[in-house]
Amino acid sequence: MGRCQIWTDSRAQTETREINEKIPEHLFYRITGYRLSPYLTAPRLIWIKKRQSQRYRKTKHVLLPKDYIRSRLTGDMSTDWTDASGTGLFDLRKKNWSNEIFRVLNLGLEKMPTIKAPHEIVGEITDSAAKTTGLKKGIPVVTGSGDDVVQLGTGVKDHEMAVNLGTSCSTFLTVPEPTYDAKARLECFVGFSRKRWLLSGTTASAGSSVDWILENTSSSKLEKHVENNYSHLKSVIGNSTMLSELVFLPYLNGERTPIWDSRATGAFLGLTLRHTRNDLIRAVLEGVCFSVRSILELTEKLGGKVSLLRIAGGATSSLAWMQLLANATNRHIMIPRESEATLLGGAMLAAVGSRLFRSVDQAVELQGVRKHLYPDVASARRYEKMYEAFVNASPFYLRRQDE
Predict the structure, then answer these.
(1) pTM exceeding 0.70
(2) b/e for 16-46, b at 16 or more Cβ within 10 A?
(3) How far apart are CA 261 and CA 288, in angstroms?
(4) Domains of the chain with CATH codes
(5) pLDDT value at 395 more than 70
(6) Which residue has the higher pLDDT, 244 or 340?
(7) Three state DSSP letters for 153-204
């Protein structure tokens, strides 16, 4: 037993380099669908084995956070294929632990949990768990999933992209087979049915960029930003003069898709004395929208045309921002009725496991529609030039992708 390492823990830098020496990055990506990074379980386990060897030897079960909680509720020691997919120890095509990776890295496969379907019932609330939590003894519990279940919770269908726009932003497109990017800019993992995979991209600082500009430009306590509530942005956007085009690069914490550079930094381009506080805020909002568009366009090259963006997360509290997103991407956008799509996705898995629905595809009907938004033609045309400037603003990063 030991303290859990949170997902942003990057201490296993040395171990990541060691893995790269044993398994070339392109091969690692081909096996797992993921880029090699210190955030994966594989380098973390090596870090523990090297620095806490006694703890590693005594460990019987390596569990991801949600699996540990479920083990306390039911006694079950399994995981699901979506969470397993993100460990860096999983074979994307075989949909099981990679014997090759465990052998090369000299890690104990016997310590890993059995992999089951996310909607499979794996146990019931035990007597002790019932007494501790107040839950009723005997309630069935499904395996569950990681937060990628937001893709399911948006109600997304074929040829639609789920976009979880919160502190960071992740996108998900369902594809019928494992799909790889030659430059490993997108990641691929197992979806929520056995014949589906998810093609995914992430921009690191989405809502966090907006939070940053709001918190650092507020002129009074009354204007102080409440995290994940952007409903007041309508007046900010409406009062932006935008006398000249202003481009913001939202790389305040490095960037993942598509440039994958942890050293990347943010910037305002085209800033003049004429620009106001509202102009700066609007530029940040648009910069995040352009980042989403860059992932969308890359995803379409590999996964086909996307007909609709289904948006979830805190950003949906601002319909004004969502309209900017529709204009900047020139796409039809749907805001689901339930914005907490991750929670709803978990409920969908439970509903399928409990036989309330026959399949995951049927369970998505639990989600409804709050609002449809369509791009304004004139605005979309203006954004074409601004997006081109956004793409060309980071030649160093883009050049590195071509090397």
Answers:
(1) yes
(2) bebbeeebeeeebbebbbbbbbbbbbbbbbb
(3) 17
(4) 13-144 (3.30.420.40), 147-403 (3.30.420.40)
(5) no
(6) 340
(7) HCCCCCCEEEEEECCCEEEEEEECCCCCCCCCCCEEEECCCCCCEEEEEEEC
CA 158 remoteness from chain centre: 19
Residue 236: band (very low, low, confident or very high) from pLDDT cuts 50, 70, 90: confident
Q: What's the CA gap between 15 and 366, in Å, rounded?
A: 43
Which pair of tokens denotes residue 298?
């890359």
CA-closest candidate to residue 44, choices 77, 7, 69: 7
The alpha-carbon radius of gyration of the chain (Å, integer) is 22
Residue 128, SS3 per DSSP = helix
Distance CA 54, CA 57 (A): 5
Amino acid at 225: H
* DSSP states of 60-118: -----HHHHHHHHHH---EEEHHHHHTTT-EETTTTEE-HHHHHHHT--GGGSPEEE-T
> In percent, how much of the chain has pLDDT > 90?
78
Report how far residue 309's alpha carbon sits from residue 255's, in angstroms, rounded to the nearest whole number: 22
Sign of CA dihedral 193, 198, 203, 209: negative
Q: Which residue has the tokens 């997006």?
A: 387
- Partners of 161 in beta bridges: 173, 309
